[in-house]
Specification:
heterodimer; A: Ubiquitin-like (UB roll); DNA polymerase, domain 1; 2 domains; five-stranded mixed sheet; about 15% strand; B: alpha+beta; Aldehyde Oxidoreductase, domain 4; Aldehyde Oxidoreductase, domain 3; 3 domains; 28 strands; binds FE2/S2 (inorganic) cluster
Chain lengths: ~150, ~750
Amino acid sequence: MRRAIQFRLNGASVEAQVAPHETLVEVLREEFGLFGARESCGQGLCGCCTVLVDGTAVSGCLYLAALAEGAHVQTVEGAAELDAVQEAFIERAAFQCGFCTPGFVLMTRQLLDEHPDPSEDEIRHYLSGNLCRCAAYPEIIEAVKLAARKRRQS
Amino acid sequence: MKRATQATETPQVGRSVPRLESWLKVTGRAEYVHNLRLPGMLYGKIFRSSVAHGRIKRIDVSAARALAGVHSVVTAAEVKTLVPEPYYGPAFHDQPVLAVDKVRYVGEPVAVVLASDPHVAEEAVHLISAEYEELPAVYDEVEAMTSKAIVHETLKPAGTFPDLKHLKGRSNTNVALDFRLRRGDAAKAMKGAERVFEHRFRTQQVMHTPLEPLVSVAESTDSSLTIHTASQSPSFVRIEIARLLGWPENRVRVRVPFLGGGFGAKLYIKLEALVAVLSLLVHRPVKVSLTMEEQFFTITKHASTFRIKSGVTRDGRIVARDCEVWWNGGAYADIGPRVTQKSGFTAPGPYDIQDVSIDSYALYTNLPPAGALRGFGIPQLVWAYESHTDMIARELGIDPVEFRRKNLLREGRPQATGTRMKDAALEKVLERTAALLEWEKPFDHGSGTVRRGRGLAIGFKACIANTTSLAAVSVNADGSCTVYTSCVDMGQGSDTAMAQIAAEVLRMPTESVTVVHSDTDVTPFDMATLGSRSLFHSGNAVKLAAEDAVRKLNELRAELKLAADTPIADVFRKKYGMRAGSVMGGGNFIPPYTPPDENGQTENATPFWMVGATGVELEVDTETGRVRITRLINVADVGTPINPRIVETQLSGGAIMQLGFTLFEKMLFDAEGQLRNASLAEYKIPGLLDLPAEIVNEAVVAEQRSGPFGAKGVGETATFGVSPAVANAIHDAIGVRLTELPLNPEAVFQAMHK
Ligand code: FES
Ligand code: FES
C-alpha cells in the first residue's frame, strides 16, 4: 500500500514512504520529526496545520501526502534564522500558548508577499482562517503591521 | 495598556520581558505532549456511548479484535482486573476509567482499541457494537432537583472536602452539593423593602476548545509508571493515580511540558487514568490524543440557572438579596461542587447588602461533565447579578453607574461571608470603566435600522482557598539560576513571571533564570494551575525559595569572609577551589484561611480578591438582530503587574474568549441528549473577524500587599463583566432585555418581536 514519493522539504530533496490516506501533517511528524505544523481541528478550519506547498499555504491536515510528490514543502522550521515575521511576533507578544503560532507565521509571510503594506482590514480578512483560542488577535494584528514595516525597511 | 506608575519600581519585576520561550514558540519547536512518540507506543482510540442514560447489556468487541493490526480491545472488565474500584474525581469518586455497568451521557468512553497505527485503531472502533437498556434521562439543572431520573445510584464523596461529607452514601438524589449561606434575615428584610425585584437568568453549556486537544501518554514497568500529560494539575494526577493503583506516590511520575491552551479543561484526571491502566495492562507505552470533536464529550462549562431577588429602598439602596443558583454539572461531578461553593458565596455581587441568603446547588444530569472554565463559575454569576442590577437601576430611574456606586462594597466592609474586603479596588475599577466610556457625556443612540448602546458591568472573585504551592530555587556555580515549580505554563506566561520573581530577589537578569517544567519526580508539590491562583501562590513560593537561597549564599559569604557583594561565581570558586557546587533554596506557601461555618460565614474566605469590569459600546442591526461590538473596555485590579505586556494579553484574551461565550458559542443538544455541533465547523469560536473594532485594557494602580511584589492573578479577571455589559448595552440600544446566553442574532431578533 505504501509507496515512495520524492519531494523537496525546506530546500532539501527527500523521500518518504506514504500510505494513500496519510496526510501531509502526519508524514512531516512521523517521517521527519517536524512538529511545527500540528493537527487541531482536523477539518481545515483552524490553520494550526498550515504548511506551504509550492509557496501556497495549505491545511496539512487535509492535504494528502501523496499529492506532495515533486512539490516543494515548506514548514515553519525551514529557516535557519528568525525572519521579520517571527521577530515581530516576539516583539509584539503575539502568542500565548503558541500552538497556533506556526500557522499564523506562515500565513503572515504569504500575506506580506502579496500585500507588502496591508491595511488592518486586509490583515483581519487574510488571517481569518487561522484561529487562536488564547485570542492573541490584537497583538497578532500589531505584529503583522510591524513585520510589514520591518520587511519594507530591509 | 494604560498604566500609571507601578507601586513597586524594580529592575526585573514590572518589566515587559518577552516570554522566555518565545523562540521555541515562533519556530514551532516548543515541546507539547501532542508531539511525543515513544518506541513501541500504541495508540488508543475510544468507543463511546450512543445513549444518554442506560444499562450496558452487551459490548461486542469480537470484530474489532479480529481486525488486522489491532493489538487489543479493553473494556471495564479488563480495567477491573487491575483496579477493582476504577472510579476517580477531585470531589466525588464517581467517574469510571471506562463505563462500568451503566453509561450516563452520550459520548462517555465505553471501550478502547489499541494499535500501533492510529488509523487501524480508529477503524476498529467502528466495528464495536454495544446494546443498552435505556433509562430515563435528565438534562435540565432545575428539573434534576426533582427528577425521577437519577444519574448516580449512590453518592461517593472523595473525602477531601469537609462540606461534602454529609452526602456520603446518599441515594435517590442528583444534588452533588447544596451550599447554603445566610447573613442576617433576607426574607424579613425583603418584606420591609419598598421595592422588590426578581429575575431569572440562564447560561448555556460551552466548551474550552484548547487548540491542543487533550492528550496523555503513559509508559510503565511493573513497579513504576510515567505519565506525560497535557495537564494543569500534575501533583493531583500523581496522587489520584497512586490512589487508584494502591501504589506509593514515588512510583508514579507525572511530566508536563508546555500546554497548547488549558482554560480549565486540563485539570484533575482526564485521560491520565485511562492511559495508565492501558499501559500497565499491555506493557507498552500508550498514547491517547483526543480529536477536537471528542473534547466536547470530555469537559465543558456549567450551564446554569440563577434566580435572583432584591429588596431595594426607594432611593436605591439594596437591603436584601436572595440568590438561588443551579449548576448543571453533567454526568460526573469533576470540580463542580467547588464551583458551586467557592463561586457561590459571591453570588450577591460586589455590593454592600445587610441581609443575604444564598442557595447554590451542584446537579448531576445526563450531559457531558462540566468543570472549571476560566472564571470557575464567576462569569455565570456576574451575568445574572449585573443584568439584574442594571434592570433595577433603569426601573428606578437611577443612572446604572450611580446605582452601583451607591451600593458598592467599600474597602474594609464585610462581604456576604462576613469576610472584610481587602486590597480589592472595586471603586477604582468602576470609576475608571465609567471614565473610559465617558459615561457623563451624552451618547449617540443612532437612528434608522442601526441603533447604538453602551453598558457596563463589574464583578469580583475570591481566589480559591485552602491551597498550597511549593517551589525550589537552585543557584548554580556559574551564578545562573534554576527554578523548580509544578506550576504549568499553558500560555499565561507563568515561566516568565516565575523567572522574573526569582531574578528580582537574586538581583540578576530574568534571562539568566530557567524554569524546569513540571515533573513530579523533580518539581515540588503544587495544588494546580487554576483559578488565577498561580502567580500569587507559586509566585510567593518562588519568592520565598529565592530568599532562602540568598540567605544561604550570604551565610557562605560570611563563612568565607567574603564581601557582601562578592559575585556568586566567586563565592563557589572560593568554597570549592573550582567551579562546583550549588545552593538550593526552598519555599512553602500556604496563606491563612478560616473554613466557613454552617451559615457560610467566615472571617477569612480567601487569600485575595480579583476585580474586573467591562465597558461596551455596540451597534444592533434591528433588521437582523446582529450585534457588533465597536468598543470593548477591560479594566481590572491585578495588583501590581509583574509583566505588564503579558497582563495586557491576558486581559484582552480573556475578554475576547468570553465574548464568544456571550455572542454565539453554544453546545446544542437534541431531545435524546445527542450533541449536534461537536466540531469547529458548527461550533464557532471567536476569530479575527469577530474582534471588536477597538479594545482598551487598563490595570488600575493597585497593590496586593500579600502578593509577590504586590501582584495577583489575572487570567480570569477580564471575563467577569463581558456578558452582562453586552446585554446592558443591547438594552440601552433597543430597549430589549435578554436573560439567556448567548445573545446571538436569532435571540435578539426574537426578543425584539416578542
Ligand atoms: S488542523 Fe488543519 S485546519 Fe485545523
Ligand atoms: S496562542 Fe494559544 S491558540 Fe493562539
